[in-house]
Amino acid sequence: MTYLVTARKWRPMVFDDIIGQSHIATTLRNAIATNRLSHAYIFSGPRGVGKTTTARILAKTINCLHPKEFNPDNACELCKEITEGRSVNVFEIDGASNRGVDEIRNLREAVRYAPARGKYKVYIIDEVHMLTKEAFNALLKTLEEPPPNIVFIFATTEIHKVPLTILSRCQRFDFRRISVEEIIDRLRYIAREEKISIDDDSLMIIAKRGDGSMRDAQSIFDQIVSFCGDNITSKQILSMLNMIDEELFFRTTSIIKSKDIKNGLLLIDEIVSGGFDLKDFLTGLTEHLRNMLVTLSTGSSKLIETSEVYKKRYQDDASRFTETDILRLIKIAGETEAALRWNQQQRLKLEIGLMRMIKLDSSVEITQLLQQIDELKKNAGNNSGRSSEPSAMFGNTRAASSETPVRGSVKATQPTLRPDQIVSPMVSGSPAPFTFSKRTISTQLIKEESVVAQSTKTEVSGTALTSDEATKKWSTFLEETLKQRIAVGTMLGETNLIDVRNNMLRIGCPDDFHLDGLRRNRQFLQEIAERVYGAKVQLEAIVARQAEIAPDISSTVSREISSQLPTIELNIDPRSQTVVQALIREFGAKEIE
To answer: 458 and 352, same structural domain?
Structure first.
């Protein structure tokens, strides 16, 4: 006999043999059983999933002389004619080569005649989406009201290209991709009937390579049989298909975990020397990392498409990583794969990508890091006698003490603070906060609404400043700042001196903009203040509303500042309120009558 490929030799002959499309087979059999056969069907789905095969089985069933349980018997003359492709009642038309309006016009003339043998004339048009717009329009009337003995069956892999006017006149069936397990079972059955020895790992490789298509998997099976003979092993398949062994991906993750750059580069050299496609390696590595992530997240390997041996390995190796680490590795693999697409130096890009994975630090939850910082703060507070202000480290205590846990990932490297970022503990026995006539600036207000710019751990030296002395020299401090940096001096002139305590000048800022400006120039302001006051002083900037500033200090300071600023006379239209407000805010302008 003439050799037939597996896809043709083992093509399903009855509805029960159709793999992975039981929902469609059951519907068609019930339609035949209840005499509810439609005049037009359209089968859509990926390649190699059984669209044309189902159409042939349907054509044989409705014309079979002796059907069995609404399946063709494949023994009568009509079934044999349809199977062999010589039936005068079943016409298989290629839509790609018969796509014009003339071919459809001939089809319209042919449907007028009754079937020569059997009950129905069946027209199977494959790749129907290739028909032209004019051909579809010419088919509309015939498709909507065909003769009672005509059945149209359309098959397409691109259903979105079929006009809605055609879809609305047909019963639509969507074929799904065939699962790996179903392909493996079918190939195992074929191998057993053909007396071919093949292991489960080989079947898994073929099924995954088929990518949901039974025809593709059967074509690969034929190719492998030609290469290996009757005894097939997974190593032979990998060699013939030039596929990367899954063991190589386990080696890659082991190198990443051990941070071994040398072996990582040697691994890439092995891949390049073996002639493997670098994009295929990255694709396989991404799938490998995905399998580890699924195993780690679900605690099971049921969702992984691989052999049982590798499923156990995934359960063992996945515990060595965290979910966040795997997600970051997948991101780097995707970025590297995208970089290879248009780059000529693919090996270099792959080496850089793998080194990034190897050098990647482990991740920890932010909540865990915050807990560690809290413990350090408590220990520091116990040693100094009093804990430091949380707002000095994190800005706002409400953000750090929220009841809702903050989730995310950061590097596990212990944060280090510069000396100027470390908050000095408050001196035991310091006087209570100042009490002003209008409103008290309490410690709680400072914690919640103020942001400490920065402070140092240097002990206060020299004579302690009094409130009067600080107020008198404030204008000199402002004048010196204006001389050296006019922008900083202008910004400082819009602030207020609100408190003096332990040689610390507490400066009230109207908003966050001024606060950030003072923080950026803290060192500069610190040096000028020490020269003006003749002592070691500290500066602390907070956000404070005007109503909270002490009137006895703010009024005096305001007068001193006003005397230092130049007077600018401008003739401004009173209606330009925006300009006036800007001049007053930015330059301290005054209206002259």
So the answer is: no
